[in-house]
Amino acid sequence: MSVLLEYHSIQPVSLEVAVQVASDQQKWLKERCYWSEPLYVELEQAAPARLTGSNSLFNSGGYETQSGKWMEVSQKEDYLMAWSDTDFIVRRLALWSKTHGMDWSVYSAGDHIGDVIQGDPNKGLEEFLEGLLEVSTFRPDMVSEVDQKFKNRCEPPQSLTSIPVSKNVPSTKSSQRKPWWRLW
Q1: Domain extents in the chain
Q2: Is the whole-model pTM more than 0.90?
């Protein structure tokens, strides 16, 4: 299941705000192991312009580790971790809204699910989050247990020098791996 969470600032932002947002998201990329794809926003065009972004919510049944092992993920675990990332992202959009005075519209699967206005997520976003958690049938405090179970998704890629490659046969190993952002 490839479902996107999409978001955009309602108001255009200055270049200074865009630079601060870029700095924040780089910091969070280092601090957080995202379930499927990280929070990522960019300017639509040269500033002043809206910030836009999106990320996949689910791992759709599993993922392949750096060592090539397939990790099967249940639908309930997928929904719990999608809830965790979505909650994190909505909180960051709320922080940016409050700090920089920009409001956000949020969509999933092409449908408008809610807004963050003056730092507060509206009822639509709260209901969307509740729905993800309800489908998972897990409690929020179980995120750390599921996160630990699948901690290998956050391992940094092996350096190119540590991957043995035959001199006679082209390696297909790297082309079979998921892109790096699917592991963070």
Answers
A1: 4-156
A2: no
